[in-house]
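Long-time lurker. I teach an intro course on protein structure, and each term I like to show students one example going from raw sequence to a predicted 3D structure in C-alpha cell notation. This year I'd like something fresh instead of my usual example. Would anyone be willing to generate the C-alpha cells for the chain below so I can use it in lecture? Attribution to the forum is fine with me.
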Amino acid sequence: MRLQIAIDGPAASGKTTVARCLADRLNLLYLDTGAMYRALAYVALNTRTDLDNQSALVRLIDQHAIGVELDRAAPLGFRIRADGEELTPEALQSNAVTSVVSTIAAQPVVREAMVREQRRIAQAGPVVMAGRDIGTVVLPDAPHKIFLTASVQARVQRRRRQMETMGVDVNAHELAAEIEERDRLDESRAASPLRPARDAVVIDSSAMSAAAVVDRICAIVDPAA
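-- Reply from a regular --
Happy to contribute to a lecture. Here you go:
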C-alpha cells in the first residue's frame, strides 16, 4: 500500500507544523488541506460571494482556477494559486479569512469538491496530509492515522506566537473564544464533522514539542526505526 499518513486535529493543535516536519523527515510530499478551504474563503471574500451559496462557492474554484501543486521547495510545502497568482501564507492566515473559513468548510458541496481534489493529489505519490477529515473521509484507508489534539490554553499560545511572527498583535482572550467557537463549528457540522477515525492514534501535544510529536509518529510508522 502506498504510504499515506493522515493527520487530523482541531485548530492550532500543531498538526500543520508536525505534518510539515514529518514530511521532511520521511522525505514525503505534504499538504495542509485547510489551506485549500482558506484559499476559497480568500477568493469568496474578494469577490463578495455569498458564503452560504454552495453552488456559487464551487463555481469559484473553476472560475478563479483555484489549484494546488505539491512542491517541497515552496514556503508552505505546496503552492495554492488563484487566478494564476500564488496565495501567500499571510493572505491565507488573515483574520478576515480565519473568521469565515469554518462557514465555507461546513458546506457539503464544497467539501465534496475539495475531497475529490485531495484524493487526486494523494494518488500522485506517498504523502503526509493534514486536515480535519483526512482519516475519516479523504483517506479512510490510509495505513497511518493520527489525531493530534491539545488543550485550548496550549493552542492559544501557539496561534498567538504564529500571528505575532506575522506582525499581528492578538488578544489572548479573544483568541481563546475564536478557537473554542471554531471547535464548536468543526465538531457540530453535518458534513464531515471533526472527530478521530476509529483506528487513529490520538496524541495530546499540550506538553510536547513538535519534534517530540514527530518522533512519536515516526515510531508508529516504522517501529523498527
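Some talking points for your students: The mean pLDDT is 92. DSSP finds ten helices and eight strands in the chain.
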